[in-house]
Design brief:
The protein is an all-alpha fold. It folds into 2 domains: 8-89, no CATH class; 104-324 and 335-447, Up-down Bundle (Na+/H+ antiporter like fold). The chain is 75% helix and 1% strand. It has a two-stranded antiparallel ribbon with strand order 1-2. A hairpin with a 2-residue loop joins strand 1 and strand 2 (442-443). The longest helix is centred in the middle third of the chain and has 36 residues, at 221-256.
């Protein structure tokens, strides 16, 4: 409750240093990660963990609390964390638009038995494992929550969390390695694209189910059906009405500015993104799905995609993403794993994630005729979680499905499976198309 007049300058006096700190530690962590041959996202999350309550902040918790959640005259406690959360949400909305815009839906055209088998195994096996693990962990981990999620909802969410592959990070890694045009890379990207598209559909379904189940504290089939109906209606609206109208408008705006970006073009896109995000938020399946769909319906406009990447991605990456990644690390409380059951559960989450994804794709690849080394590479690539996993985790927290301990486990799983990718791919690269892959601009072969 507001207790007095809000002094905006006083609020900014606390907010701006906090934002500067978050961006600074994220960029520093990203820089170190790149030097080690890892994606920036790993360094940005680890920086948040390092400076958060799990490490440095634990040495002076009062100072950390005063810096991140100060008492500001006229504002209720928790205002600054709420502002940071809102900014990270806006960043996610813009990021999901960019991901949708980059998404090459030609990858969804299955090009052969091997791709289909790897994709199915990479989705089905970890999903089944996640359901089973969720059933085991639901009672021990959610019992202390004020509003524990229903077992079925928790299990569904765990299944989705185990099934995701980080398509954007995977694509960038293979470009940096200089192997993006190889057969293995094409198969991995195609399988990952199919898995992620399926994962988004499942996540939207779980989100709708969780919202419907929490409606009035009881499950409401009518609410769930109405959400499904609204979602399908919105999908049809975006594909058959918004897409042609927005395509014509953006083409006209680009032609009017001689093929260059303009304020009118970017403003139009931002309006479309926020309107679509508002509608999906109203439906109950989260704003990020509307943003992703807005990008997806424009993904065939390659000239537009290039302009948007040049003019929007840089600021989103420099400002919004560090806030999201570093604040993810700052919210991670490794101390929640300090007892036997959570510690064992954390090991189980990592083991099930790796076994389901790497193991499933390895066996499917081997059955499709690939060598053991090639099969291991495909399994390792599909096991990369990174950004997409963090978005899933974020949705789980917003739904109230995850306790703090499970949030921490899944963040660590996302980071560890991403860290594993480069060294393991390098380990299995000999005698494959990936032999001689580059690492930090140097050939692996030249380092041997």
């Amino acid at each position: 409750m507001v207790t007095g007049k809000i002094d905006i300058e006083v609020l900014l006096l606390h907010l701006l240093p906090l934002l500067a700190f978050i961006v600074a530690i994220a960029r520093l962590g990203g820089w170190f990660a790149l030097r080690l041959g890892q994606p920036e996202v790993v360094g940005e999350i680890m920086a948040g963990i390092l400076f958060g309550p799990s490490c440095i902040a634990s040495l002076w918790p009062e100072g950390f609390l005063a810096f991140t959640n100060p008492v500001v005259e006229g504002l209720p406690s928790g205002t600054l964390p709420l502002i940071i959360k809102v900014l990270s949400q806006i960043g996610l909305v813009l990021l999901l638009f960019l991901i949708g815009l980059e998404f090459d839906f030609s990858h969804l055209k299955v090009t052969g038995f091997s791709t289909a088998a790897i994709s199915m195994a990479g989705m089905a096996l970890p999903f089944i494992f996640g359901l089973g693990l969720g059933w085991i962990l639901h009672g021990p981990l959610t019992g202390g929550m004020e509003k524990p999620p229903a077992p079925f909802t928790f299990c569904l969410f765990m299944g989705v969390a185990m099934s995701i592959t980080a398509l954007p990070i995977l694509g960038r890694l293979m470009v940096e390695w200089g192997v993006a045009r190889t057969r293995l890379a094409a198969i991995a990207i195609t399988a990952a694209a199919i898995d992620d598209a399926s994962g988004w559909i499942l996540l939207a379904a779980v989100s709708g189910f969780a919202h419907a189940q929490l409606e009035g504290g009881t499950f409401s089939p009518i609410t769930l059906l109405s959400m499904g109906g609204y979602s399908l209606a919105f999908l049809g609206l975006m594909i058959w009405i918004v897409r042609p109208a927005l395509t014509r408008l953006t083409r006209w705006l680009m032609a009017r500015n001689h093929g260059q970006a303009s304020l009118a073009l970017l403003g139009t896109l931002v309006i479309a993104i926020f309107c679509a995000a508002t509608i999906t938020s109203w439906i109950g399946i989260f704003a990020i799905f509307g943003a992703f769909l807005t990008g997806a319906i424009l993904s065939g406009e390659r000239e537009l995609a290039e302009l948007v990447q040049k003019n929007l991605r840089l600021f989103v990456t420099a400002f919004f993403l560090p806030i999201f990644f570093a604040s993810t690390g700052l919210r991670t409380k490794i101390g929640t794993l300090d007892s036997f059951i959570p510690a064992i559960a954390a090991v189980a989450v990592l083991a099930v994630a790796v076994l389901g994804k790497w193991g499933g794709c390895l066996l499917a690849s081997r059955a499709s005729g690939f060598t053991w080394r090639e099969s291991n590479i495909l399994g390792v690539l599909m096991n990369t979680r990174a950004l997409m996993e963090l978005i899933v985790i974020h949705v789980g927290m917003e739904l109230g499905v995850l306790p703090d301990s499970m949030y921490t486990m899944l963040v660590l799983m996302a980071v560890i499976t991403t860290i594993m990718t480069t060294p393991l791919t390098r380990l299995f690269s000999k005698g494959t198309e990936f032999e001689g892959m580059k690492l930090n601009g140097r050939s692996v072969a030249s380092e041997a």
